[in-house]
Amino acid sequence: MPKMRPMPFEPTGEIAGISFTPPVARRIGARGTAGAGRALAPVLGPVLVSLVLVSGCSAGSGDGRTVLTAPADGGGDATDPSGSEGPDGTGDPDGPPPPDNVDLAAFEPREGGGRMQDSYPVEFSREAEGGVSMVLAYLRAISTNDTGELGGALTVYHADDQESDPESVGTEFLSERAVDISEAARSVGADFDPERYPSPDSSHRITPIGVMWRTAGASTVEVYVLAEERVEDGQGLELERTEVHGHVIEWDPVARVGFGDWLVTGEPDPDGHGLPDDQRHSMEHPYWTPVIVP
User: Fold this and answer.
1) 143-161 tens-digit pLDDT
2) 97 vs 117: CA distance, rounded Å
3) Given the DSSP bridges, would you call strands 6-8 and 29-31 parallel, antiparallel or unpaired?
4) Which of 201, 283, 292, 293 is a Cys-bridge partner for 108, taking CB atoms 3.0 to 4.6 Å apart?
């Protein structure tokens, strides 16, 4: 996945609309990072909104914790259409139309009709809302560093991995995740050893907070999820960030032994969400519909 352009860290910030002031007052340059390959969900735009370093950072407060926050890539100006409003007063004027969910006050994920391997919800309803619910179930399923569980999620929800060996795709996923974390840590001078990742005490938690989607065809939907993530490498490094995950999903009428289900088939256009750079991580934007966590 392509590198993001450099962006400064600021001593104040906002996560999910909640303002806060971290206990640090110096600026440190950083670069937004993203994973690569089919296993990692695509990360769109500047993704590193907040970074907490427990150890290994060259700058820190007296208690050993340094909190740095990154703005959502500047505010745009009169010559920059990415910072302008669209025809509806909300999105990029050169971007796609408003998403299908724009009038929803909240989205409550639907339940699947069954489970695979006693862990993964499947058999979601044929409507687009069923597909969005599948994507949210997938993100919950990859909120782990267990190789078997990650591989199971990929083989259940990704069309290209239906016949793959779960252990192999889970291992590949973790390797790409380690690269992502390594780049994020390096951007602020923190220590991270990808060879020791994941350790038994490491964790990776993904919490969806917002969603948007657009129907792209009779059986295709583009889904974007705004999620808060917390990463711990088990060696003292902690990351907190807000990311946009994008997936193209398609209805497969013969999946699940003919019941039919939604499967991840690709990645959407990186700018397909239609949000200005300085608003893509803000739940204040009407394109994002809050997710009701079950």
Assistant:
1) 999 999 999 999 999 999 9
2) 39
3) antiparallel
4) 292
More reliable by pLDDT, 4 or 254: 254
Identify the pLDDT of residue 37.
Answer: 38
- Amino acid occupying residue 144: T
Residue 99: CB partners within 8 Å, gap ≥ 6?
212, 213, 214, 224, 273, 274, 287
Q: Flag whether pLDDT at 72 surpasses 70.
A: no
**Does 280 map to a domain?**
yes
Q: Which amino acid makes up residue 132?
A: V
On whether the CB atoms of residues 272 and 138 are closer than 8 A, the answer is no
- Asked if the structure places residue 185 within a domain, the reply is yes
Question: Would you call 25 exposed, middle or buried from its count of C-beta atoms within 10 A (0-12, 13-18, 19+)?
Answer: exposed
Q: Which amino acid is at 26?
A: R
Domain membership of residue 208 (yes or no) is yes
Higher-scoring residue by pLDDT: 138, 32: 138
Tokens, residue 27 = 């600026």
Distance CA 282, CA 278 (A): 8
Q: Is residue 1 part of a domain?
A: no
Q: Mean of the per-residue pLDDT values for the chain?
A: 76
Q: Which residues, 6 or more positions from 114, have their beta carbon under 8 angstroms from its beta carbon? A: 121, 122, 123, 256, 259
Number of domains observed in the structure of the chain: 1
